[in-house]
Amino acid sequence: MNWLKIGMFGLAFVTLIGLIYAIEPDKIIDAMSEIEFSLLILAVILYLINTVIKAMRWRLIVSSIGTQLGYVEAVRLFLCGLAVNNTTPGGVSGEPLRVMLLRYKKGTPTGEGLSTIFSERLIDLTVLMCLSVSGLWFLLPILNHGDGQNLLISVGALCIILTTLLTFALHPKPLKIVTAFFEPAESKPKLMQKIHGWILQFQTGLEQLREKREIAIKAFLVTLVIWINASIRFGLIVYAVTGNFEAAGLIILASGLVYSIGTFLPFGVGNIAIATLVLSSANIDEAQAITIGIVEVATSLTLSVPMGILSMGITGMPEEEKSD
Predict the structure, then answer these.
(1) What are the TM regions of this chain, as residue ranges (predicted)?
(2) Which long-range contacts (CB under 8 A, 24 or more apart) does 84-87 make?
């Protein structure tokens, strides 16, 4: 696992350096010098608002399994996971931390905690796929054939993954098959038995959310607000760099692609790469395109990581962990 993380960080670093030197650093510096910083302040405010909204959505989903979080507590625990997510591949490494904190702070079973994270991510992916498909519909005519085809294949692959996950979440039979495989028996190791317990808890958590449709619907609507906010924020950054309304509208259309496909490299490098691809293919200056990606990532990382570290310090290690 450590070698995998090192490899992904290395790939992210090489990708970022390659993008910068392919376009020439001097041009990027010039593009940054022309940024409208008042718009960046507004983009930062939108990011902070979105962070709170995401924490409140998680609090809402967690309530479906009977765990009650205070508003400040939900934001604090969410920030702990967000800081880890924004600095690791795939943006999911912080989720086990949230599950652990739920277990030790609120007594939530591990499997049920995992079900809230799974539900949250599934709703995110559903909304992002809707945005991605809508964006591709408008973007394909203006992208060159190769770039458009690559994005189409990527979105198609993610749609297949989404369909599989939705089937898994909405129909209990697939999960029952998995549960049966880990059915405890004297011949099976204790780890298998423990995993069986987690799966049963996970199943219980999903069932509770399915039964509480009002919470699921509210979470979906809040997710729409989250990603519309993120799209507008991205558009503001584009306009701050380019002063071009058409370019801002273009990236709003492409935001679903950026946030879904781009999460597979850490430190937002994937976001930079996809944003640069879309904007450059649409005749936006390459130096401005990569500057947009860098600024979008910088205005999130420079906020989420310090806030997350502060939240970790306030939250502290679980008592059980301290005694080890």
Answers:
(1) 35-53, 122-140, 152-170, 219-241, 247-278, 290-314
(2) 84/308, 86/267, 86/268, 86/300, 86/301, 86/304, 86/305, 86/308, 87/266, 87/267, 87/301, 87/305
